[in-house]
Specification:
By secondary structure, the protein is of the alpha+beta class. It has a single domain, classed as Orthogonal Bundle (Arc Repressor Mutant, subunit A). It contains four helices and three strands; from the N terminus they run H-H-E-H-H-E-E. The chain has helices at residues 4-13, 16-28, 33-40, 44-56; strands at 30-31, 60-64, 72-76. The chain has a three-stranded antiparallel sheet. A hairpin with a 7-residue loop joins strand 2 (60-64) and strand 3. The termini are close together.
């Protein structure tokens, strides 16, 4: 588990778009790329790059829809 200082350091080193995607996920709890795109008006590529960065930092999880395996849901990682 990260200390508060480490968490603040991670957030300040993120890109603006990554922080925006993280903020949207904090509000919605779980969302698809299309939902994030509709809310943020960011390009799909920017969102996917932000998701990759947030996953690498261990801040979000990806869940596959069981009824349609092409669909992915993104949510905050619960520690």
């Amino acid at each position: 588990m990260l200390s508060m200082g480490e968490q603040i350091g991670i957030v300040t080193n993120m890109t603006t778009s990554s922080r925006f995607v993280l903020m949207i996920l904090q509000e919605k709890k779980i969302a698809t790329v299309n939902e994030i795109q509709n809310r943020s008006k960011l390009s799909r590529r920017t969102i996917m790059n932000s998701i990759r960065d947030l996953r690498n930092l261990g801040l979000i999880d990806v869940h596959v829809c069981l009824s349609d395996t092409r669909k992915r849901f993104y949510c905050l990682r619960i520690v």
